[in-house]
Specification:
Blueprint lengths: L7 H14 L8 H9 L8 H11 L3 H4 L27 H24 L6 H17 L5 H19 L5 H24 L3 H18 L2 H17 L3 H11 L9 H15 L3 H16 L15 H15 L2 H20 L7 H17 L3 H15 L5 H13 L9 H13 L14
């Protein structure tokens, strides 16, 4: 026991575990361990106990409970103390080697018993996957804050399990789940208007993606970080983050399409038309190179409707009548695609933002009636799912209604009042661009 550096409690656990393996059903008390240690017994323990001890130590019970072996001078607890006496003509050195080999095997067996214990079973991982799939599927059309609370509790459960012990493959899957949940919390924090909290959640999500070794999640999280920088009026940082994410080629899914589309909006915010066109072309290229559907999909996927809506936003940033016409076409396409989805799967926030891009494009072409139609549709939908990005975008497009040519227009004034009523709650300063 001293050579193995075992405590009495560890010895007792090993004894009980080995007994179970041998179907002996034995345990040993602390008092009994002490008696064995000092040799306070007549003869040997019960035969069943002897079988357990022989399995544990790889030695006969007679030698385990026999007289102490003589130690070399100055040595007390070295291997030599435990060297057995020769049996027949067998050399002492061979017996010492045998004992060391047997001891090493017992140590490996003990570690194997420790390592095979896991706090995660197949059912636990299956339930995590099911919960994550449900959350990312329903997120786009559910109120944000109640979902935030649910996701936070699930993420905490994943963190607690990761603090325990599981097989490496189970750990990787748990890190993947935890990273995706942190990504959802980053998106929810963004939707609730807390950009610094969104950045913190995204950093943890990226760390989990690294530990899981998953490129799809790495690329998606870099996209989220780029998106937050874009909304935080840091378009150059948004470009850098999207560019960094581009080096991660996803195993499956559309994360790279999303990266290029976000990068295009940031370049357009900087009025760099060539870089914008290049990023939009790479988004199309990435769309053609998608290998398989996003897993788990839902809000982590970047559908064609969203790509069209992001393209419209980029064109709006560049300005000019030709860009406004392109933006209108792309926004109309996005709205049509979103409205074609079943109501229970419809991405309400993105639909609103696409319609606001359409309104902005029509205002740029002096089509007030067409813009007002989109405003009113957005106000009706956004009441079901209020997010910070919709409020920001409404405030931005509302500024166009204050242009001199609309200041005496009854229709423009009426819509302006409706928007003011919707956004009366305090929100961070608006950006002249669309949100996620």
């Amino acid at each position: 026991m001293r050579q193995l550096r075992q405590t009495r409690a560890e010895f007792q656990k090993d004894f009980a575990r080995t007994s179970d393996q041998l179907n002996e059903g034995l345990t040993v008390s602390t008092r009994q361990v002490d008696r064995w240690m000092v040799g306070d017994l007549d003869g040997l323990p019960h035969p069943a106990a002897c079988r357990v001890l022989e399995q544990m130590f790889g030695e006969s019970a007679e030698r385990l409970f026999g007289p102490p072996e003589p130690a070399s001078r100055g040595e007390v607890t070295t291997v030599e103390v435990l060297r057995p006496a020769p049996v027949g003509n067998e050399p002492v050195e061979d017996l010492a080697v045998q004992r060391e080999v047997t001891m090493a095997a017992a140590e490996s067996a003990r570690f194997g018993q420790f390592a095979e214990q896991s706090n995660v079973g197949p059912h636990t991982l299956e339930q995590f996957r099911a919960d994550l799939a449900r959350i990312v599927t329903t997120y786009p059309n559910r109120p944000v804050y109640p979902l935030f609370i649910e996701v936070r509790a699930l993420r905490n459960r994943a963190f607690e399990l990761l603090e325990g012990r599981q097989y490496p493959e189970q750990s990787r899957e748990l890190y993947l789940v935890a990273g995706a949940l942190c990504g959802v919390l980053a998106n929810a924090s963004f939707d609730l208007g807390w950009l610094p909290a969104a950045e913190t959640q995204a950093r943890t999500a990226f760390l989990c993606a690294e530990l899981a070794g998953n490129n799809a999640l790495r690329a998606w999280v870099r996209g989220t970080q780029s998106l937050v920088a874009y909304w935080d009026e840091r378009p150059r940082a948004a470009v850098e983050l999207a560019t960094d994410g581009w080096r991660y080629v996803p195993e499956t899914g559309t994360a790279r399409v999303r990266l290029a589309a976000i990068e295009a909006r940031a370049h357009a915010r900087l009025r760099d038309q060539r870089a914008t066109d290049n990023a939009l072309a790479r988004a199309e290229q990435a769309r053609n190179e998608v290998r398989e559907a996003d897993d788990p999909g839902g809000m982590l996927a970047f559908p064609l409707a969203k790509q069209s809506f992001y393209t419209a936003t980029a064109r709006l940033w560049l300005g000019g009548r030709d860009s406004y016409a392109d933006a209108e076409r792309n926004a109309i396409h996005a709205v049509q695609l979103y409205e074609a989805d079943p109501p229970e799967q419809r991405r309400l926030g993105e639909l609103c933002l696409a319609r606001l891009d359409l309104a902005a494009a029509r205002l740029g072409r002096d089509d007030l009636d067409g813009a007002v139609e989109q405003f009113q549709g957005v106000l009706a939908i956004a009441a079901q799912r209020r997010t910070d990005s919709i409020a920001r975008r409404l405030n931005q497009v509302d500024r166009a209604l204050q242009w001199p040519r609309y200041q005496t227009c009854a229709l423009a004034l009426d819509v302006h009042d409706q928007i003011r009523s919707f956004t009366r709650a305090s929100v961070p300063p608006a950006l002249p661009g669309a949100g996620e």
